[in-house]
Amino acid sequence: MRFISLANRVSGIFFEQNFGFNFRNNSVTEVVTSKDSKSFYVDVLRCKNVTFINFSIAASSTSPNTDGIHIGRSSGINITNSFIGTCDDCISLGDDNKHITILNVTSGPGHDINVGRLGKYPNEKPVESLTVRNCTLNNTNNGLRIKTWLDIIMVNVSKPVIIDQEYCPCNQCNKQTPSKIKISEVTFKDIKGTSATPNGVTLICTRCELSDIDLIFNGVPTMAACTDVKVHNFGENIY
Question: Which cell locations does it reside in (predicted)?
Fold first, then answer.
């Protein structure tokens, strides 16, 4: 395991998660293997320009609430050349995140790459400029949410492409009240592989762009289930 800091030395803060990075700037963490955390494996809070390289996470497929890397209120976070397998979100983003790049990451099992639970609290700040590139998602529950570009491979993923503005776990809310979160300028592009269900694309939102989605279920192209959505569709294999 090797830590490199461009401005100051990286230190791990240990709570229920294996690693906590709070208020860190201009740092690189590389060649780390993390196993059997009680909760989140890595919690990133209010950091700027922090990079994770060759970061490996291995969790039991039955361990609850074990997010791999959770990012909150940070900017310039890069996750590259890494392997993440959990029982919850492999990579998750809360509110007030900007310029997040996920590159060459293999993940699964888990719920996979998610921007989620926004809108529960007042005065939340937006998530902006999330890029996911050249990743492989293997036997995950969800695939990608919000914004993705270029060369994403799905392997037997239950919900490969999903935007859900009716998220309401355990009936904690009133679905008759519309979402207060505005989702805009969303592009899902160049996504291929296999789906574990007939619906490869599930959209409950307002506006997005789909381009070159090539997802197969049992040898035939998947379908798209859309609610209250204006879709600009380019390419093939979207029905």
Answer: Secreted, Cell wall
